[in-house]
Structure formats: structure tokens, C-alpha cells
Amino acid sequence: MKIKEIIFGSRTPKFSPESKSLGGVQSWLPVKNIINGVVVTKDDRFVKIIETLPVNFRLKTQSEQRTVIQYFASWLKIAPDNIQIRVVTQKLDVESYVAKMKAYLDAEDNESCRAMIEDNIAEVSRIAESEVTTHRFFIVFEYGAYMKARSNTVKAIAERLNEEADAARRYLEFCGLEVLEPEYADNAALETLYQVICKNASRRAPLPAGVFDMVTQVHGVYGE
């Protein structure tokens, strides 16, 4: 299956306000398109994904902890009804480092230095395989009729979801969390989906610059 098919699926009919959700909780994948940073699913739901950087709650003072709890609870009161907090865990990618060290090894004539480089490669690989992991934290929510977009169009629904994301960002910043704000929201959403769906492939072959425009030319623009 091609990467475009994995991410976007095949061509599907135009959005219909009367369409009903066909899937369960996890049915926001695969997706049909990305509009203004909002993921459009094949069953015509609209999903916003925001990524936040973590903080160590236990290192904060009691006063700071109370503040975090207060603001987080305040946000939950106004947060969308259907919301998920997702944590993606991945082993640390050391392939580029190991490749560089192997290049040094091939160019090294001194046997003692070669032995040190080989030990370093083995140790780094062992640690990466058994101990070191990276974590990414996502908040995912979808559009509901109660949100009351200004009109029943794709653009208006995307704008309404982005307003919800801005509200979440403000409250989470009060909690001491940094919510990432990519310059190009569509490209960032596409790259996030690629990295989540294809963990290993995304490390070996990152998406090229301008990939969103290339995919759009193949699949067309999702209309109103």
C-alpha cells in the first residue's frame, strides 16, 4: 500500500452534513484529507490533533501543583465532549549516529581506536534497544454539533475546531505546558499522522518538503 493510500485512503464522496459516523473510537484513521490543520476522516468526522511538551509535575512546588490542577480542571469543564489524550512511545533512533561511527571505524587504522569505536557502537545500540525511549503527547478531539460553527461548511467547521485548540492552548500554558504551534498546520498534521501510522518507516524515510502539496495534486482539494 502506498503512503498516500495509508494516510488519505482512496477517493471518497463529497462531505454531507447528514452523514453518520460509521466507526468507533479509533475510526478517525484512515483519513480523507487535512483542512487548515484539521483531519477529515473517511466517515466525515472532523478531528483536531495538538501536541504538547510535558512537564515533571512532581518537581513542582505544592502551590504550583495546585495551580496546574486548578487550570487543568477549568479547561476540562469547557473542553470538547469527545477528547482523547494519547501518548506515543518510541525507541530512540540511533541509526544516524551508528552510521557515522561506522564511517569513522572504516577510516580508522589504529587498532585501539577501532576497538573503542566498536565498543561505543555496541553500547549505544544496547542502550537504545533496551532502555531509552522517547514520548510524544497528543490531545485529540473532534467536532460536535454543540460547537455550533458559523455555517455547515468544511472551512467553518475547521475554524471552529481551531478555536477550541486555541482555548486548550491558553489553559494548558497556564499549567506550564507548551503546546506546539507549527507554522504550516497542514504539513504538521500530515507528518504527525505519518509518524504515528508508520513508526519505523518515518524514521528511515522522513516526508520530503512540500509533500502535502504533492499529495493534494493527486487527491484533489476537499470542497465545501
Please outline the helices and strands.
Blueprint lengths: L2 H6 L22 E5 L2 E4 L4 E8 L8 H17 L4 E9 L3 H13 L3 H20 L2 E10 L11 H21 L3 E2 L5 H13 L1 H6 L6 H9 L5
Helix pairs in contact: 2-5, 3-4
DSSP summary, beta strand count: 6
Instruction: State the distance separating the first and last CA atoms.
Output: 29 Å
Assembly state here?
A: single chain
Report the biggest beta sheet as strand number plus sense, adding barrel if it closes.
6 strands, antiparallel
**Unreliable residue stretches:** 1-6, 10-28, 218-224
Supply Rg. 22 Å
Task: Please describe what this structure looks like.
Strands 1, 2, 3, 4, 5 and 6 form a six-stranded antiparallel beta sheet that branches. With 224 residues, the protein is of the alpha+beta class. The protein starts with a helix and ends in a 5-residue tail after the last helix. Helix content is 47%, strand content 17%. It folds into two domains: 149 residues, no CATH class; 39 residues. The longest helix is centred in the C-terminal third of the chain and has 21 residues. The N terminus and C terminus are likely disordered.
At a glance:
Helices cover 47% and strands 17% of the residues.
